[in-house]
Design a protein that fits this description.
alpha/beta
């Protein structure tokens, strides 16, 4: 799939460690297929808890391969930060979409689906479907 445009994934958490760990888990569970561009955007520039519009924008730019960027968030204010960036219109790459999905399960589903070369709609659908995953 060399040269193929892939959907990029950004994982926004209030904690850099959580974002990094979920990114590592999602990459690891996606198998040996195509390497999906995944970027964590966790915490603040100073390493504290919170969210940073600058870190989110940089992460989105780093994973943009021309097929769109799916952004998954952990908690309320991370959603608000991404919505504000999207409303500004020029801070995130064209085709960036906030995806309403559970953070861990949605991230895994998004990365696995993106690794197949699926488009942004399919990546979003897979991540959103993770809300229905049953554990018992």
């Amino acid at each position: 799939m060399s040269g193929e445009k892939l959907v990029g994934i950004v994982l926004v958490s209030h904690s850099a460690e959580v974002a990094d760990s979920v990114a590592e888990l999602a990459r690891g569970l996606s198998g040996a297929g195509t390497s999906v561009p995944v970027a964590p955007a966790g915490g603040t520039e100073g390493g504290g808890l919170g969210t940073s519009s600058d870190l989110i924008a940089a992460a989105a730019a780093s994973v943009d391969r021309g097929a769109g960027v799916a952004v998954l968030t952990d908690l309320g204010s991370s959603v608000l930060t991404v919505k504000a960036l999207l409303a500004e219109g020029d801070e995130l790459p064209a085709g960036t979409r906030l995806v309403d999905a559970p953070f861990v399960e949605g991230a895994v589903a998004a990365v696995v689906t993106a690794s197949t070369g699926a488009d942004l709609d399919a990546v979003e659908a897979a991540a959103t479907e993770a809300y229905s995953y049953r554990k018992v």
